[in-house]
Amino acid sequence: xxxxxxxxxxxxxxxxxxxxxxxxxxxxxxxxxxxxxxxxxxxxxxxxxxxxxxxxxxxxxxxxxxxxxxxxxxxxxxxxxxxxxxxxxxxxxxxxxxxxxxxxxxxxxxxxxxxxxxxxxxxxxxxxxxxxxxxxxxxxxxxxxxxxxxxxxxxxxxxxxxxxxxxxxxxxxxxxxxxxxxxxxxxxxxxxxxxxxxxxxxxxxxxxxxxxxxxxxxxxxxxxxxxxxxxxxxxxxxxxxxxxxxxxxxxxxxxxxxxxxxxxxxxxxxxxxxxxxxxxxxxxxxxxxxxxxxxxxxxxxxxxxxxxxxxxxxxxxxxxxxxxxxxxxxxxxxxxxxxxxxxxxxxxxxxxxxxxxxxxxxxxxxxxxxxxxxxxxxxxxxxxxxxxxxxxxxxxxxxxxxxxxxxxxxxxxxxxxxxxxxxxxxxxxxxxxxxxxxxxxxxxxxxxxxxxxxxxxxxxxxxxxxx
Length: 467
Hints:
By secondary structure, this protein is of the alpha/beta class. It has helices at residues 3-7, 11-19, 25-43, 51-65, 109-116, 159-166, 183-189, 223-233, 251-254, 278-293, 309-323, 332-340, 344-364, 391-401, 406-411, 440-453, 462-465, and strands at residues 46-49, 78-82, 120-125, 172-177, 192-195, 215-220, 263-266, 269-270, 274-275, 297-300, 370-374, 415-422, 428-435.
């Protein structure tokens, strides 16, 4: 196997190669670090590369291989961590240059899980400032670029994570999602991204913020890789304000489950925010046709999201104030959001209203197993496309673009972005599968069924395969 093929080998297959002693963790880490050195200057996917730490960890993992055969499913596989999450001893900037010297002395709970499972962290990936935007172009950092076309965004706020996986700069990635920040970048870069159910993945050691709309989750090249990483991430930490039991059997096992007939709804519009563009509509309709061929029952209908827009905005913008970053250090749109943030009472009223609408959306799933939507309402934007707009104009553009995503954050339901084709700019097109509460296993089984019927793994960006 040549080095490019090795770099694009699915994470679970890499782990099997490691177990069979056909490749070592150290060889893989060196391969990915070489690719990062070559391609990251063009892609801006990593803020911080942890080369020395990764090599030391890989050497230790390689030694462990000589003494045991009982290893976790992803042992020795190189991974990236989004720069909104703390890794002890490594800068955590939150996409703000004022925090370049912010070095935590602890690991976030999700990072602890990843380390315990034997994955090797290569570095911290690019994000928008405090995760606020669906593109990753924070002031003071190079913009993260889409490896399928460098003129376009890889999305946000997990844009660096998605760009790194898509370009073969890591095998798999951790991301986070408070309004589409895993699903959007996965869609922009042709990857699988899972937004887990509320309570599936810990926020330890910090508490829940923003009424539970945000969660950590996986970004990967295959459904099985994403499922395996979600298994790794899942589980209770002492003091978590809410939690779900670990799945039995595992999410990875769900990729091999045979599905019966599911009741599947679909829509290409999100009232009152509009209709998807032709590319995104095409992705949904092609997927719906395939689902019908696979024996599922299809119906065109959608919950009413109209009452969610204002309260979700109010909760979302409170995250800027919660960050504690001084106003003068913020980008213009975040400054504008901070200035609009209401009182504590207004925030709690928005949370209450959001939860009322969320109940109505969840009730829709009493008669539906899965809802198929576009991930975003139009194809990826160019780098800097909205840079000259006012903050208010930019925010309205964001609201329209990401419209299909926030409902799952408000309700706490699971959702998956899955690649299904390409648009006229040779950028990936994806669909968004939203499931019943705590029903990741059903979504993963369905996504695996679609993946098997229409494989995607053979596609690679030309930029990342020309070395």
